[in-house]
């Protein structure tokens, strides 16, 4: 193989399978606290296996989609591990870079940065990558640099670095319809636009979305795009809703398993809305989806959902007993002791929920939001589903009483196994013209919510590790490292956060 004209890559925090545990990747969104940065990076983002050409065995799913689109169109393109891109300096004409959080402006990175005053590991890692000699040499050779991915919007906040690093084009949004035209222009040395925003009208159809050609990180498979709930703080709601056919899902599972991935993560903004009637889950498409997945997966492979909505969890179980059916008949086995999923609480205030995310509770009324949350947490706890939940602090129109309601909801959720992460509001979606929520906006009500979520998470994290997570022998060092951090966190982080924030308020 002589080389690639188009190389796709990213920094180490993204080009990793996180020891085969997706959740560990989120550790890279914080600064190294209590341990050296190298150890923090090893826990969150160890190096990944590559072939003789430097192609990673697993790579970020979105990057795999771009790679597949280019290969299908006949381009000489490949994803290359960041440690190996120097091998292609003589053949590379375009360098494509993707990331979920380039500059740590997304949640929860921005929160950790604001609270501690320390740059998160993902930001430091990406800056080192872009300042590396290989990137400088690529630019000197005239290589065109194109950046994209979910965090493309962050380049607008870093214009100085954009110019310094010589990034030619930033593409914000789904790229399948626009990437070929941009690549042709770049290869022909035609002028490139600085910034491209791909809106809903330019979103690709199902037929235009290619199947990946090689395994994605931890077997992540997209089952739908878009979300019908319309939460104002979320950019995904701007995309049209499309369901990926079962045949395409099955083929991508096979590609992942043939490539050696340890399981499958079904990816969607709300897995339970696959084939739904609006916001109401339907048993038939969900059962067919899981039946298809487990025909390929078997009993010994790992399995997770990326995201699910709490209202959908409650509706699916209350109306059809669907959660318990899926867990007992498909998910749980001698090798799969639990199911992991991300969920959004965002607020415990019915008033604020009605303003910011009125359809988040649908088909139930927004006024019942705290009850919906607790019911869903109970259902998950009873069915061995472990949620990683988010709270958003500093939402527009937030009042002190809204935070009191959120703190009260945290008390109600104490009995349920879960991880709850408070995040600072980041202006995105329909709220992108609002101001950021930063440390100088924190009130004592915010502190109360943060401390309650911290205590809840530390308590249940120990239980989760003891009963469910990181039980494999080869992961013992990672488990030990996390336990050491939890021990440190219980005695130090809480004190640092509480005293530091209160001193800042007094100042």
Automatic annotation (TrEMBL):
It holds the Pfam family Radical_SAM. InterPro entries: Elp3/MiaA/NifB-like_rSAM, rSAM, rSAM_horseshoe, rSAM_sf. SMART domains: Elp3 (SM00729). PROSITE patterns: RADICAL_SAM (PS51918). Residues 213-462 form the Radical SAM core domain. One of its GO terms (molecular function) is catalytic activity. This is Radical SAM domain protein. It comes from Staphylothermus hellenicus (strain DSM 12710 / JCM 10830 / BK20S6-10-b1 / P8).
């Amino acid at each position: 193989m002589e080389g690639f004209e188009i190389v796709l890559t990213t920094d180490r925090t993204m080009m990793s399978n996180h020891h085969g545990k997706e959740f560990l990747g989120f550790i890279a969104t914080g600064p190294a606290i209590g341990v050296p940065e190298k150890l923090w990076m090893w826990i969150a983002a160890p190096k990944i296996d590559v072939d003789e050409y430097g192609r990673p065995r697993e790579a970020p799913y979105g990057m795999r989609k771009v790679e597949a689109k280019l290969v299908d169109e006949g381009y000489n393109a490949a994803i290359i591990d960041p440690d190996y891109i120097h091998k292609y300096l003589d053949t590379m004409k375009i360098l494509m870079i993707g990331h979920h959080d380039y500059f740590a402006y997304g949640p929860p990175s921005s929160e950790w940065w604001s609270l501690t005053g320390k740059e998160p590991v993902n930001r430091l890692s990406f800056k080192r990558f872009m300042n590396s000699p290989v990137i400088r040499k690529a630019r000197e050779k005239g290589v065109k640099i194109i950046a994209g991915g979910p965090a493309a919007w962050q380049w607008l906040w870093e214009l100085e670095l954009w110019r310094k690093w010589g990034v030619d084009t930033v593409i914000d949004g789904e790229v399948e319809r626009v990437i070929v035209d941009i690549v042709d222009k770049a290869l022909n040395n035609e002028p490139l636009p600085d910034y491209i925003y791909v809106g809903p009208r330019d979103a690709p159809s199902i037929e235009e979305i290619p199947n990946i050609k090689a395994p994605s990180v931890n077997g992540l498979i997209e089952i739908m795009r878009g979300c019908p709930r319309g939460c104002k703080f979320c950019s995904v709601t701007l995309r049209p809703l499309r369901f990926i056919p079962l045949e395409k899902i099955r083929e991508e599972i096979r590609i992942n398993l043939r490539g050696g991935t340890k399981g499958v993560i079904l990816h969607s903004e709300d897995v339970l809305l696959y084939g739904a009637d609006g916001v109401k889950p339907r048993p038939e498409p969900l059962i067919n989806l899981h039946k298809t997945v487990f025909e390929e997966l078997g009993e010994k492979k790992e399995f997770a959902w990326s995201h699910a909505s709490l209202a959908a969890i409650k509706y699916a179980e209350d109306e059809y007993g669907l959660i318990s059916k899926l867990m007992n008949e498909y998910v749980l086995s001698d090798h799969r002791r639990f199911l992991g999923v991300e969920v959004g609480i965002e607020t415990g205030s019915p008033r604020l929920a009605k303003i910011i995310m009125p359809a988040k509770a649908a088909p139930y009324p927004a006024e019942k939001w705290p009850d919906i949350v607790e019911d869903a947490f109970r259902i998950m706890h009873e069915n061995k589903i472990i949620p990683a939940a988010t709270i958003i602090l500093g939402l527009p129109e937030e009042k002190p009483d809204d935070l009191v309601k959120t703190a009260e909801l945290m008390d109600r959720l104490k009995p349920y196994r879960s991880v709850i992460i408070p995040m600072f509001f980041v202006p995105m979606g329909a709220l992108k013209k609002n101001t950021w929520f930063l440390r100088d906006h924190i009130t004592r009500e915010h502190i109360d919510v943060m401390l309650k979520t911290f205590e809840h998470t530390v308590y249940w994290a120990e239980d989760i590790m003891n009963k469910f997570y990181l039980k494999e022998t080869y992961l013992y060092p990672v488990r030990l490292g996390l336990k050491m951090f939890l021990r440190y966190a219980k005695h130090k982080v809480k004190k640092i956060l509480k005293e530091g924030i209160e001193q800042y308020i007094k100042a």
